[in-house]
């Protein structure tokens, strides 16, 4: 990381001097180690899929996929060193995706739960709280 | 500001055609604005695939048995190899951006060529997977003709989602190959340097997103079903 911070300081020294865009160059080893980590995660996720953990297989696979996605976004896509605003754009899209899928699933997974309750205790539209019919 | 740009042109080096548009105060702001635009575009892509991930989640929750049965007909070794191919293409793409940042024209050409080769490999493997599915009658919805399934209707829904998601992802790979070819040609014309490499960076971000989507598609479709 020492080489990285050196390059960083150097880059910004130039950037303040002129109007030109001066790139923020990362050391090669960051790319290579990210690549190795992604390969290792891929092997792990395939290996784990052969073991039956029941419902947990899905969440283990999603956890590993999210680790891989974070590596790609932070390092290959430079979000770690980038303007914070680009990260906010990405994370906000993921939050809305979470609302979209989360609310849809809580809807569809709970369909049909109200009907048996309604069948046992039919609703009187004119007296929804049973206030005028104390025999209920 | 303009004098420094003219000095570069006079030196005859580093992206002589490059200039800062008059509505941008500095080249840095121009570069960051363009990049933010790419990120906004990537968000629309995430939401496009998000709709399909949502439909997958709904039908998986409704027809878990049929989905698990159907996903065993996907080859996780082929899918795993394709994942590795895409990760390698992401590495070469990231290194191509780095090579452009350091004005290494030759390395940019080689690395973009490698990225194209990995992308083509991905599509070739996908082609073999698809033709195998066609042959077995593992097709979407009413076209599903494979026999021996306990839940053929549910398997048909699984393959409808499989072909829709991997198909649209495949079109993104194809579009990425077109974009990479475009920056490869511009690089051969000597247009990119540490001063100006915004198109390489933008195409790179798009390419990484295509990889990101596959990172989720692969375990969901091939591994857990």
Automatic annotation (TrEMBL), chain A:
Pfam family, one: COX4_pro
Keyword NADP: no
Keyword Chloroplast included in the entry's annotation: no
Domain of life according to the entry: Bacteria
Keywords: Cell membrane, Membrane, Transmembrane, Transmembrane helix
Transmembrane segments: 30-51, 58-79, 85-103
Matching InterPro entries: Caa3_sub_IV, Cyt_c_oxidase_su4_prok
Protein name as catalogued: Cytochrome c oxidase polypeptide IV
GO cellular component, one term: plasma membrane
Region named Disordered: 115-136
Subcellular location: Cell membrane
Its membrane topology: Multi-pass membrane protein
Compositional bias segments (type: Basic and acidic residues): 115-127
Predominant localisation class: membrane
UniProtKB/TrEMBL annotation, chain B:
Transmembrane segments: 38-59, 79-100, 107-128, 157-185, 205-224
Domain (Heme-copper oxidase subunit III family profile): residue spans on this chain: 35-225
InterPro entries hit by this protein: Cyt_c/ubiquinol_Oxase_su3 (IPR024791), Cyt_c_oxidase-like_su3 (IPR000298), Cyt_c_oxidase_su3-like_sf (IPR035973), Cyt_c_oxidase_su3_a-hlx (IPR013833)
Protein topology in the membrane: Multi-pass membrane protein
GO molecular function (one): cytochrome-c oxidase activity
Gene Ontology CC: plasma membrane
SUPFAM superfamilies in the record: Cytochrome c oxidase subunit III-like
The entry's keywords: Membrane, Transmembrane, Transmembrane helix
BP term (GO), one: aerobic electron transport chain
Pfam families, per the entry: COX3
Keyword Membrane assigned: yes
Keyword Transmembrane helix: yes
Places the protein is found: Cell membrane; Membrane
Superkingdom of the organism of origin: Bacteria
Family (UniProt): Belongs to the cytochrome c oxidase subunit 3 family.
Annotated protein name in UniProt: Cytochrome c oxidase polypeptide III
